[in-house]
Design goal:
- With 184 residues, this protein is mostly helical.
- Helices cover 66% and strands 0% of the residues.
- Helix 1 runs antiparallel to helix 2.
Length: 184
């Protein structure tokens, strides 16, 4: 889990990100919420990093990557449709195990606001620009609605199955009374 999240945050190669997201999707499906909760912050940080501007790596600039104030950031990784789909699947699995509010809080936690904040010692994530943040928030809201719709559909199916089994029992009784000519 740690390696997968680290590769998502630091890699610029789409194939590596795809493989890491696939592994993350599988692990989110396998682990129970108690175990997955230990890694929730790392997973949400990895998803946030896919949307944020990144510091250039040593391969693009020719010098080692040092996090300094004069470092210029490059655009977020160009996400293919498969990467977007895998992010949706991971978020959907996380929202089924945790609540929408927890996921939103973890994804946007410790995000720098760009204003004059006091230094509390927390490592701040770069703030997403307005359009990217709005898109990510819309994705989370739409996934929440989709999960609620699935839950309602499953409850209706279960209630329909219970009613049909009760109707089947009543039908067997009526067939018996008609066939035997007995009322009781």
């Amino acid at each position: 889990m740690d390696a997968s999240c680290h590769l998502i945050r630091r890699s610029e190669n789409k194939e590596v990100i795809l493989a890491s997201l696939n592994l993350l999707k599988i692990l989110c499906g396998i682990f129970q919420s108690t175990i997955l909760g230990q890694y929730l912050e790392k997973i949400c940080d990895a998803i946030h990093s896919l949307h944020e501007k990144r510091a250039p790596s040593s391969t693009t600039t020719g010098k080692p990557n040092a996090a300094s104030p004069d470092t210029t950031f490059i655009a977020p990784i160009n996400k293919s449709q498969r990467i977007k789909t895998l992010v949706k699947m991971v978020l959907k699995k996380l929202m089924k195990k945790f609540t929408y509010e927890i996921i939103v809080e973890k994804i946007f936690a410790n995000e720098s606001s760009g204003g004059g904040k006091m230094d509390t010692g927390d490592v701040l994530k770069p703030a997403l620009n307005g359009v990217v943040r709005h898109g990510l928030e819309n994705l989370l809201v739409n996934l929440k609605k989709l999960i609620e719709k699935d839950r309602l559909r499953k409850m209706e199916e279960q209630n329909g199955a219970k009613k049909s089994s009760n109707n089947d029992a009543a039908d067997l009784i009526s067939v018996y009374t008609v066939a035997t000519g007995k009322d009781n």
